[in-house]
Amino acid sequence: MSHRYRIAVIPGDGIGREVVPEGVRCLAAAAQAHGFEFEIAEFDFACADYWLRHGEMLPPDWREVLGGYDAIFFGAVGWPEVVPDHVSLWGSLLQFRRGFDQYVNLRPVRLLRGVRSPLRDRQPGDIDFLVVRENTEGEYSSIGGRIFEGTDRETVVQETVMTRIGVDRVLRYAFDLAAARPRKHLTWATKSNGISITMPYWDERATAMAQRYPDVTADKDHIDILTAKFVLRPQQYDVVVASNLFGDILSDLGPACAGTIGIAPSANINPDRTWPSLFEPVHGSAPDIAGRGIANPVGQIWSGAMMLGHLGELAAAAQVVAAIETVLDERPEVLTPDLGGSGTTEGLGAAIAAEITAGE
Ligand code: ATP
Ligand code: MG
Question: Which part of the chain is the Isopropylmalate dehydrogenase-like domain (predicted)?
Answer without folding.
Answer: 6-352
